Amino acid sequence: MKFEKWQALGNDYLIVTEPVDPETVRALCHRHLGVGADGVLHVERTDEPGYVARLRIFNPDGSEAELSGNGAREALMWIHHHGWAPGPEFSITTIAGEIRAHVLDDRSCRVDMGRAKIKEPGTIGEFAYQALEVGNPQCAIRIGDRDTLDALDLPAIGPAIEHDERWPNRTNVSFWTELAPDRIRARIFERGVGETMSSGTGATGAAVAHVLRGGDSPVTVELDGGELIVDVGEDYHIDLTGWAVPVFTGEWPANAR
Questions:
Q1: What is the DSSP letter of 66?
Q2: 75 lies in the same domain as 141
Q3: pTM assigned to the model
Q4: Phi/psi of residue 161, each to 5°?
Q5: Which of 145, 177, 242, 255 is deepest in the core (most CB within 10 A)?
Q6: Are 208 and 231 in contact (CB under 8 A)?
């Protein structure tokens, strides 16, 4: 199985064109026994009208994700680099629906993420949260200041929130704080992954929560791996802009586990 490894703000995925099963995904993503990645992207051509490809997204634990902002952007840029698309604007299909890209240059693109679905806010443990969906479930938790945010022990806090019964399919969790009316800092605990250097949908969830509280859009989201720009429009329509680049190519042996 041939693969390409891509990364976006340190959020790394393996892109393959051959189908994969959960066991293979877990083996590929293992940081010591495999290639190492935050997930696997399966890209295949499709004859479905209006789309150039179909994308499936797998977490490193083998589960399938509805959407990943960084993963989708890596897949879109891979499609652009490999000449699958007729121009800079094109659409792919995912289990979360249509994802539309506008390629800006060889490194970056703007992605139409559709509309966020705003859910009821609530409290979990010591934290107040805003629930929403941006193609996948999000729990956005506002923290009062940057020092408190940076001091949080996400590996200790995150699992209980991810697996809480109010999210039957688990949830992604973003912890964020306002830096300016149009800028926030966020840390992400991703479903099926744990703490990551960045997450496109996690950044989007935090940005929407910020705008709900009166923040300005577009929102620049500072993550451990860099910055993303989230434009929150009317009816919470989302455009996500950022970069994605290839790291290396390789081949996974058929008998490797």
A1: S
A2: no
A3: 0.92
A4: -75, -45
A5: 242
A6: no
CATH (domain of 226): 3.10.310.10
**Residue 257 corresponds to which tokens in the numbers above?**
């586990």
**In terms of domains, do 231 and 208 share one?**
yes
Q: Which domain holds residue 81?
A: 2-112+243-251
Using CA atoms, how far apart are residues 244 and 155, in angstroms rounded to an integer?
A: 26
Residue 149 and residue 219 in one domain: yes
- H helix or E strand, kind and range, residue 29: helix 22-29
Residues 139 and 27 in one domain: no
- Do 22 and 53 contact (CB within 8 A), yes or no? no
SS3 97: strand
Mean pLDDT, the chain cut into blocks of 10 residues (257 residues total): 97 96 96 96 96 97 93 97 96 94 97 95 97 96 98 97 96 98 97 92 97 98 97 96 98 79
Which helix or strand (DSSP H or E) is residue 196 part of?
strand 194-196
> What is the Cα–Cα distance from 67 to 72, expressed in whole angstroms?
7
At 217 the three-state DSSP class reads coil
DSSP code of residue 63: P
Q: Which amino acid is at 4?
A: E
